[in-house]
Design brief:
The structure holds four protein chains of four kinds.
Chain A: H1 6-19, E1 24-30, E2 37-42, H2 45-51, E3 52-53, H3 65-72, E4 77-81, H4 83-94, E5 103-107, H5 116-123, E6 127-132, E7 137-141, E8 148-150, H6 152-155, H7 158-161, E9 173-174, H8 188-194, H9 198-209, H10 217-221, H11 248-261, H12 270-274, H13 282-296, H14 325-331
Parallel strand pairs in A: 1-4, 4-5, 5-9
Antiparallel strand pairs in A: 1-2, 1-3, 6-7, 7-8
Chain B: H1 3-16, H2 28-32, H3 43-52, H4 56-59, H5 72-76, H6 83-98, H7 108-111, H8 118-128
Helix pairs in contact in B: 1-6, 3-6
Chain D: E1 10-15, H1 19-28, E2 37-42, H2 50-58, E3 63-68, H3 79-96, E4 104-108, H4 114-131
Parallel strand pairs in D: 1-2, 1-3, 3-4
Helix pairs in contact in D: 1-4
The chains are: A alpha/beta, B mainly alpha, C alpha/beta, D alpha/beta.
């Protein structure tokens, strides 16, 4: 359950709109279902009061929307940023992807977001309403008479269980209390995979990646994937494939996508959140982050604006490509 | 060059691990050898003669037993040829072939002379008895 | 669609011996875009080239593939051929079916199959080739010479002679280098100073030449024709413009016990010093490690005696920034350290010296005023032993010696031996040698004179050890001709120490991105055909920085390097390599990834207005490549996440086409 | 070895300045290596996009090797340092996905190392041949 309330955020947004500081607000709007919250642009206080929501399903990271939005307008936009969103915000600034002057960033605390797949797994399908209560999420479905109450920790998304930071690394204004960078176990699953035999790993990834329907949601939501034109949409890249193509996803798309964001990925976990097939895509990105930390020193993309990403950097005594496996073998 | 000598040459090269072709004929091994005056064939000659397959004379020379195995030649050789190892290999071949050239402890006192270094006696005794 | 011609070369039997050339040209005939395919004995011959030209015209070819030797061999040839026939030279691709096919595979079916695949890959690439035109960049008409020894001096004089300004950077307080330390020079025995110092004066008086002595190169940026160099002029605490070089300060300075590096530490100098009488520039320098005034503010004698008022204890290091069109490396050599050669007792006895020390000992301006006296007791030596190849040709002692032949020792040792016998006929001179190497005009005659006329004893063999005993040095060596061990009681032993590149060469090579061999000698662009050029464009090599050399050879190489520099500086514009990176602005994110990996700083960003897919306009930051600066490595193309950056001539689509052709 | 066994297909990306020249030198010295090795010339090893490598595997290559100048000797100063990082990351990822790590390699071969080039290719081809066909990264639809 989130500590700050919807009303506090609306109040802040409304006052900034009224004062003319911003001309719009990037926030969350209720979608078709209770768990289906969508990003939206609010331009009036009335819209805010009617449609703005804040709760345990407001996972969407708005940083990426700033790229397109700041191009369209000359005035400022207010954006609410959870701690993990601020890393993406900084990373995009490092890459000169939007105009900082056109953004009023309000940092808000986050207690972790719920994973709808976990909720459905416990409460079942046909969800009609979800309410955040003291005890947990009270889920009403078509098939149950009384709401099913799910404890927050049971519904928490994987990325929030292994939250890397409750600290905001960028904002103009902060609402609520500032947190700290956390020690998380976010690389445990990567290590577990590394400890498997190659055959086991291959089987694991075949099973996961073969589910891909190439909806491109992971790419479209990713705050690092803000290319004007994606290589996979580009006929001259030599690798254009827009539609699902059998084994292509397993053997090219996800590897290249992970490689393209390597060193730039802030580990916000949006890719896995939006994947309709529940593929643990973050495990690809985290592998790169873990390798970078191991071989080139600890690096958190977006921790500071202007930092040099590890893959556009080098030292003269870097590890040789043939030697990166050694650690894997030690684990095996 | 006879076939047998070639076989012997290969054997010596195998035992010693020395590549006599690396020798550039500078003679520093012989220049540095403390037993030079005692030897009929000198370290550099061992190297050249092995390379030429001219090995019989080496097997029969007393020089084999004058080498102190002090390794000065190995230390100083600019090309890393390691002549002492070659001498040692010839010695081994001679020993294996003859089998009868072993020294008896009783023979030692007769061979002593006061110029002979202590190291030579001990090393000779260690090598040529049993 | 391209109209491609394929030309398969037999290279006599070099290719045709292992590759069925007819089968290759037949197979490639059916590839997409190919309208003509043939084979011929020697494509690079005039007849072969004419065949290509005729085919281009007859079949209106838009691209050609030559299946022949390595593109490193004849790509340029065939590009010129294509150009002569009116085809853009970058529409030519080479399939390397000699070095990478016929020469490494043995049977004809294998060779033929691979040659066809390589040909197909080249055809697939040409299908995507586009005509390219090279860009141009201006040339800064000024040269930098790094090192002020005879190599640097000669190069600078020759460049200045052609009318171009030259700067010499020398780390020591004076130019002159090693040659200034020598006594006589072989094979004519004229005195080094007599032939060098006039050249030094020429340098000083030439208004095209600036000398930055006591200075070093700190940073090199840019590229051929446009180098930006930072030179650090170290504080010498003497105003160079005012100092008259009168030397009053060097006589009055109370700090008398500083080892004199010009005499290799065999005598002492003051804390303020002029290295030698004919130094250029002839100005004093204060050694900050020895000067009491600089160390603890107590003294100031030199300032008091300087009539010109040139002493400036507050002088600071100065950074000079200058642009150059060409850079000549002339960093020279040093004898290697003898400390590790225990057998020669160099560290144990003052009377075991190196040949360079011997030069100072016989030099009239040296520590003994030219009298041959041994360092330990200043007595005249009656028996001198010279040992050659000390540390040279030393394959087994990488930690102390060098594997190569130092080249100059045979000759200078003959010179030394001859000079001793000439001046002091009562002195016996022995030279221990492994081989006497005397290729060079009048060199062998010179060596023979040492033996025949001067009675120098040459002994074929090496010295095993030198043992100091009383006033004598017991030398034990072998005489391989006599097959005996020789023992000589010598008074002086002179070691012909191997020479090695100056220690400053390695960091300099890194700054220049010029390549070096494992011995830290600079690599030439081609060992035979481009011996004075570094593979890095605009960087030239002069003297012993490229390999051991004597003075005549150094001077001729210095002149050659100068002529290459003059050839470069005479151009107003340089034609660049058209195979450079170019961004597709519509796809560029402006993310700076490419900028960060570019080693040349060729990428900058501009804000541009674009019409977006949703019909709005937006101002976006996009990358731009400076075509004169880009060298075409392609690092940016992989750093670019959107694939907006591509490399002309090696475009992603072209490489992928090659991959696909090979993996069919 | 079976008669009809598919021969391994190896794609070698060689930088123009060192490794391609090293390959030429191997040719000059007639140092044999398997014809399975097909060389693609790139200006610098840093021109090699991971996409090219995956494409080769997708189209049926059994091994991909990238050869560049020795670190520190890059004709373009720093290109091979970027190659080293990129390929270290890519190879580690392929290993993580369960792809046999012997199928990919980076080797530094100078223009003077013709013998090393041939030896490297012989060794790599042998290792790749021992693994058999690349099934894990191949796209079956690309097969004829």
């Amino acid at each position: 359950m989130q500590k700050i309330t919807r009303e506090v955020l609306i109040e802040k947004a409304a006052s900034l709109l009224n004062e003319g500081v911003v001309s719009g607000v990037l926030g969350w709007k209720q979608g078709e279902f209770a768990y289906d919250v969508t990003p939206a642009l609010f331009t009036t206080v009335d819209e805010l009061n009617e449609q703005f929501v804040w709760g345990d399903f407001c996972g969407a990271n708005f940083s990426k929307y700033l790229v397109a939005h700041t191009r369209k307008t000359q005035s400022k936009v207010l954006v609410f940023l959870k701690p993990c969103d601020t890393y993406s915000f900084n990373q995009l600034l490092t890459e000169h992807r939007f105009d900082r002057e056109k953004v009023y960033a309000v940092g808000i605390p986050c207690e972790g977001m719920a994973d709808v797949s976990k909720v459905k797994a416990i409460a079942g399908e046909g969800i009609t309403a979800i309410e955040s209560t003291e005890e947990g999420l009270a889920v009403t479905t078509l098939y149950n008479d009384a709401p099913v109450v799910i404890a927050y920790e049971d519904a928490l998304a994987e990325r929030c269980i292994n939250c890397k930071s409750k600290k905001h690394v960028a904002y103009d204004e902060l609402i609520g209390e500032e947190g700290d960078v956390l020690e998380s176990g976010r690389f445990d699953q990567v290590a577990a995979l590394e400890a498997m035999t190659p055959d086991e790993r291959f089987a694991f990834w075949q099973k996961e990646l073969s589910k891909c329907i190439r909806c491109n949601a992971c790419r479209d939501v990713c705050p690092a994937c803000t290319c004007e034109k994606c290589v996979f949409n580009n006929p001259v890249s030599g690798a254009e494939t827009k539609a699902p193509m059998g084994t292509f996803e397993e053997k090219m798309f996800h590897i290249i996508r992970a490689f393209h964001v390597a060193g730039r990925c802030t580990d916000c976990g949006e890719c896995s959140r939006v994947c309709p097939q529940d593929i643990p895509l973050h495990l690809l990105n985290r592998k790169f982050i873990k390798d970078i930390n191991t071989h080139y020193g600890e690096y958190q993309a977006g921790a500071e604006v202007g930092s040099r990403a590890p893959l556009v950097n080098y030292t003269t005594n870097d590890v040789e490509p043939g030697d990166v496996f050694e650690r894997g073998e030690e684990n095996a | 060059m006879s076939q047998q000598n070639n076989n012997l040459k290969e054997e010596l090269i195998r035992i010693s691990g020395v590549n006599p072709k690396k020798c550039m004929r500078c003679g520093k091994c012989s220049a540095t050898c403390p037993a030079y005056e005692e030897m009929e064939y000198h370290p550099h000659e061992f190297v050249v003669m092995v390379e030429n397959g001219n090995i019989e004379p080496l097997l029969n020379t007393e020089s084999l037993y004058r080498c102190l195995t002090c390794f000065a030649c190995v230390e100083r050789c600019p090309r890393g040829v390691e002549p002492a190892k070659l001498v040692e290999a010839v010695r081994l071949v001679a020993t294996r072939r003859q089998g009868a050239n072993h020294m008896k402890a009783d023979d030692v006192p007769a061979k002593l002379d006061e110029d002979l270094p202590q190291q030579a006696i001990v090393s000779a005794f260690r090598k040529y008895t049993k | 669609m391209q109209r491609i011609g394929v030309f398969v070369c037999w290279c006599g039997s070099n290719i045709a011996g292992t590759v069925d050339v007819q089968a290759v040209s037949d197979a490639l005939k059916n590839e997409p875009g190919v309208v003509f395919s043939t084979n011929y004995q020697y494509m690079c011959s005039q007849a072969g080239q004419n065949m290509i030209k005729d085919a281009i015209k007859e079949y209106r070819l838009t691209g050609i593939v030559v299946c022949s030797c390595s593109p490193r061999m004849h790509e340029a040839t065939f590009r010129k051929t294509a150009q002569a026939a009116g085809l853009n030279p970058y529409m030519v691709e080479i399939a390397n079916i000699r070095e990478q096919c016929s020469w490494v595979h043995k049977d004809i079916p294998t060779g033929t199959e691979k040659a066809i695949i390589l040909g197909k890959a080249a055809v697939a690439k040409v299908n995507l080739n586009a005509p390219l035109t090279p860009g141009e960049s201006p040339v800064t008409k000024r040269a930098l010479v790094i090192g002020g020894g005879i190599a640097g001096i000669q190069t600078a004089l020759d460049i200045a002679d052609a009318g171009f300004p030259v700067d010499i950077v020398e780390t020591k307080p004076t130019i002159g280098g090693k040659m200034a330390q020598l006594d006589k020079t072989f094979p004519t025995l004229d005195c080094a100073a007599c032939i060098l110092t006039p050249k030094m004066v020429d340098v000083a008086q030439n208004d095209k030449i600036r000398i930055f002595s006591y200075s070093e190169v700190q940073e090199v940026k840019g590229f051929v024709g446009n180098f930006d160099v930072k030179i650090k002029k170290k504080a010498r605490y003497v105003n160079e413009d005012i100092c008259t070089g009168c030397g009053a300060c060097t006589e009055k300075c109370p700090q008398k016990n500083v080892p004199n590096e010009f005499n290799l530490g065999m005598d002492n100098r003051r804390a303020i010093y002029i290295p030698f009488a004919q130094a250029v520039p002839k100005v004093a320098t204060i050694d900050p490690n020895a000067c009491n005034m600089l160390k603890n503010g107590k003294c100031g004698v030199c300032a008091k005696v300087c009539a010109a008022g040139a002493i400036d204890y507050k002088q600071q290091d100065q950074i000079i920034e200058e642009k150059y069109g060409a850079i000549v490396v002339a960093t020279g050599f040093n004898p290697i350290s003898m400390e590790k050669f225990d057998e020669f007792a160099y560290s144990q006895s003052k009377d075991v010296i190196t040949s360079l020390e011997f030069e100072r000992l016989t030099n009239a301006a040296g520590p003994t005023a030219g009298k041959l006296l041994r360092p330990s007791d200043l007595e005249h030596p009656h028996t001198i032993v010279f040992v050659q190849c000390v540390g040279s040709r030393c394959a087994a002692c990488a930690e102390k010696g060098k594997e190569y032949c130092s080249k100059i020792c045979c000759m200078y040792t003959a010179k030394h031996a001859m000079l001793v016998r000439d001046k002091y006929p009562d002195t016996e001179v022995y030279v221990f040698y492994i081989d006497v190497r005397t290729p060079g005009k009048n060199f062998d005659e010179f060596y023979r004179r040492a033996v025949e006329e001067y009675g120098v004893h040459y002994i074929k063999g090496m010295v095993g050890k030198v043992t100091p005993e009383g006033k004598k040095l017991k030398v034990q060596g072998s005489d391989l001709i006599m097959d005996e061990q020789v023992h000589i009681d010598a008074d002086l032993v002179v070691l012909a120490a191997a020479i090695e590149p100056d220690k400053s060469a390695r960091p300099l090579a890194t700054m220049l991105t010029a390549s070096m061999d494992t011995n830290d000698f600079f690599t030439e662009a081609h060992p035979k055909l481009r011996p004075v050029e570094s593979p890095t464009a605009g960087v030239f090599l002069s003297g012993a920085c490229q390999g051991p050399k004597d003075i005549p050879e150094t001077v001729s190489q210095a002149g050659a390097a100068a002529s290459k520099v003059i050839g470069l500086l005479a151009k107003d514009k340089l034609t660049g390599n058209p195979c450079i990176a170019s961004p597709n602005e519509l796809m560029c994110n402006g993310c700076s990834s490419c900028e960060r990996v570019c080693p040349y700083g060729a990428i900058t960003y501009v804000d541009k207005e674009f019409r977006m897919p949703d019909r709005t306009t937006a101002i976006r930051r996009v990358a731009q490549v400076n075509p004169a600066v880009c060298q075409g490595c392609g690092a940016c193309t992989v750093a670019c996440p959107s694939g907006a950056m591509d490399l002309r001539g090696f475009a992603s689509a072209q490489i992928i086409a090659e991959v696909d052709a090979i993996c069919k | 070895m079976q008669v009809n066994e598919k021969k391994p297909l190896i794609v070698a990306f060689c930088c123009n300045w060192c490794s391609y020249a090293g390959a030429d030198l191997a040719g000059n010295n007639r140092l044999a290596y398997p014809a399975d090795v097909k060389i693609i010339r790139v200006p610098c090893s840093c021109r090699v996009n991971p996409m090219f490598i995956l494409r080769a595997f997708q189209r049926g290559a059994d091994g991909v090797i990238i050869c560049g100048c020795h670190p520190g000797d890059c004709h373009y100063t720093s290109g091979n340092y970027f190659t080293r990082r990129r390929m270290a990351m890519l190879f580690s990822m392929l290993d993580y996905l369960g792809i046999e790590k012997e199928r990919t390699r980076v080797e530094w071969v100078s223009a003077a190392e013709g013998a090393k080039f041939a030896a490297t290719m012989n060794d790599f081809a042998e290792k790749v041949a021992a693994l058999g066909e690349n099934k894990r990264l191949e796209d079956l639809r690309c097969k004829k």
